[in-house]
């Protein structure tokens, strides 16, 4: 029994030390990134773009589609969502697919606006600190607008305005439910889900988006069927 307690204490100490090291490494990486350019300047680079679309100018169907498929508890949690991470892990294992991610919309803004697309552990750690900073300084609606104005939609389209004009020759405010649900699914994997790259997979992704909208009460099943 004493041996077990000693092993448990050692394990907990190692866990604390490991977590402390990760905290320091992640924060240092984020702090060094801000030395190159402050957060406010990085955000202003996005908001000052000619085709930046404000939150209030986005159609409800598109907003609801993005929230449904990317982060349905976006307005309820903080920078990170432990419940969402656990749910995504369970769902992906259950379905033998990787349709759901654990990152919040805020974390994805941190990746798009503050860092780069490199999939490294140190960047993921820095991303957490950037996310807390974003949530502290910007509203949820502002963060959402930053997300859709900094995401890649395939075919060289790096914001919702360009994607809407490029794929459908219309402004985002005029998107139908079918078009909004299609575009909402693309940023998850633009090289796979861009409708000009693989129409079949794009439609499959769109169906997933619409099903999520039905699940979370944004549309009826009849609306989803009609959009498909």
Provide a short characterization of the protein structure.
With 228 residues, this protein is mainly alpha-helical. It has helices at 2-36, 39-47, 60-70, 82-95, 105-114, 121-137, 140-148, 160-168, 177-185, 190-193, 199-215, 221-227.
Instruction: Report the structural category.
Output: mainly alpha
**What is the CATH third-level topology name?**
Penicillin binding protein transpeptidase fold
According to DSSP, the number of beta strands is 0
Q: What count of structural domains? A: 1
The biggest sheet, with number of strands, parallel, antiparallel or mixed sense and barrel status, is: none
Rg, Å, rounded: 20 Å
CATH architecture verdict: Orthogonal Bundle
Per CATH, the superfamily is: Biosynthetic peptidoglycan transglycosylase-like
Q: What's the CATH class, please?
A: Mainly Alpha
Tell me the distance between the termini: 62 Å
Strand/helix succession: HHHHHHHHHHHH
Give the amount of beta strand, in percent. Answer: under 5%
From the spread of the alpha carbons, the general shape counts as: globular
Mean pLDDT across the residues is 86
Structure annotation, total helices? 12
* Unreliable runs: none
Helix content: 55-70%
């Amino acid at each position: 029994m004493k041996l077990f307690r000693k092993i448990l204490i050692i394990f907990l100490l190692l866990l604390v030390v490991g977590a402390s090291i990760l905290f320091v490494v992640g924060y240092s990486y984020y702090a060094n990134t801000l030395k190159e350019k402050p957060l406010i300047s990085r955000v202003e680079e996005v908001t000052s773009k000619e085709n930046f679309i404000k939150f209030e100018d986005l159609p409800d169907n598109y907003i609801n589609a993005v929230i449904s498929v990317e982060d349905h508890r976006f307005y309820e949690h903080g920078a990170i969502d432990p419940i969402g991470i656990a749910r995504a892990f369970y769902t992906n294992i259950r379905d033998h697919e990787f349709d759901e991610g654990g990152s919040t919309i805020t974390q994805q803004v941190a990746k798009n606006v503050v860092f780069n697309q490199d999939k490294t552990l140190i960047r993921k750690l820095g991303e957490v600190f950037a996310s807390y900073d974003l949530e502290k300084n910007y509203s949820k609606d502002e963060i959402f607008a930053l997300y859709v104005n900094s995401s890649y939609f395939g075919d060289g389209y790096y914001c919702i305005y360009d994607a809407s004009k490029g794929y459908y020759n219309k402004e985002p405010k005029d998107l139908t439910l079918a078009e909004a649900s299609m575009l909402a699914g693309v940023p998850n994997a633009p090289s796979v889900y861009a409708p000009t790259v693989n129409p079949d997979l794009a439609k499959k992704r769109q169906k997933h988006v619409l099903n999520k909208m039905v699940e979370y009460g944004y549309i009826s099943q009849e609306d989803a069927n009609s959009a498909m």
